[in-house]
Amino acid sequence: MSSGSLMEIEELRLRYRTEDGEVFAVDGVNLELRRNEALVVLGESGCGKSSLAKALLRTLPRNAYPPSGQVRLAGENVLALSEEQFRRQIRWTRMALVMQAAMNALNPVVRVGEQVAEPLRIHRRWSKHRAMQRAAEAFEEVGIAPDFLQRYPHELSGGMRQRAVLAMALVTEPDLIILDEPTSALDVLTQASIMNVLKRIKNERGTSFILITHDVATSSELADRVALMYAGRIVEVADAELFFTRPAHPYSQMLMASVPHLRQKEHPKSIPGRPPSLIDPPSGCRFADRCPKRFARCSADPPAANLRPRHWVNCWLHSRGDS
Ligand SMILES: Nc1ncnc2c1ncn2[C@@H]1O[C@H](COP(=O)(O)OP(=O)(O)OP(=O)(O)O)[C@@H](O)[C@H]1O
């Protein structure tokens, strides 16, 4: 399986217009994703994770400005494509989205099989028969018996609905599937079985994933890489094992110390304070206010320090250079 680069995100920015001012939801994000890699974008609520997914897939609310920066998919800057080109060439066929609320992604009055087949009917112009056959295969891949194709969304359990939405994303065999909190509304056993489905698809198909979540435990199931987001920016990106065992940024360290473990003697430690507002965010390191290790330099923006191959951290503690 090729391990070359699939997507390069450079200086990606997304702002929303609001009555209180502009919200800088994604504020200069740089990331690289390889083929057959699962990148987890981890972060607290409101840090801009969903906005990052929306900017990548261009599923933007009306009050968003067009995203700026570059998003190169297999070398092509897809941000430069027109909406029409993006819809025809990229969304669903090469990049698909699985959202948190499966019920919202499904039309309640259309049988799920037809909905799963729809991307093939629209984007590939396949016949109904052929598309339904492929939909049945996709159902099997996600662990749903094909006779469920004939059911309506309300006849499926929450976990089944989420699998059906996953089948809809898989049906066109895209290179990349972006999952935005795909299991957060589900119980832990259903979460685990969906994570297993994702792992199997990754191994069998070589698909790449960007998994967006606030949940460290879920993310560790699938992650090859972890990018930690804070206040619109990525503060650390590393291989998953390294991130989970030896994180370098003080925020990453505090986040890992806040995760409860079974049979752990000490109490998990919460992180005091709150993230800054994304309307007029502070200059310098955005975590500085909450950071026990802050020092004078933190009032300037920390550059990205390359600690080892593919391990970047935006923190002055790790920067050898001058500001
Ligand atoms: N349509 C919108 N208009 C204005 N502000 C928005 C809009 N959508 C999101 N925001 C703001 O942008 C920031 C980032 O939100 P986003 O939903 O991307 O974060 P998140 O990390 O995905 O959070 P959550 O996990 O709670 O969804 C937040 O300050 C949020 O209030």
UniProtKB/TrEMBL annotation:
GO terms for molecular function: ATP binding; ATP hydrolysis activity. It comes from the Bacteria. It holds the Pfam family oligo_HPY. The keyword Metal-binding does not apply. Residues 7-256 form the ABC transporter domain. GO terms for biological process: peptide transport; transmembrane transport. PROSITE patterns: ABC_TRANSPORTER_1, ABC_TRANSPORTER_2. Keywords: ATP-binding, Nucleotide-binding, Transport. SMART domains: AAA. NCBIfam families: oligo_HPY. This is Oligopeptide transport ATP-binding protein OppD. It comes from Halorhodospira halochloris.
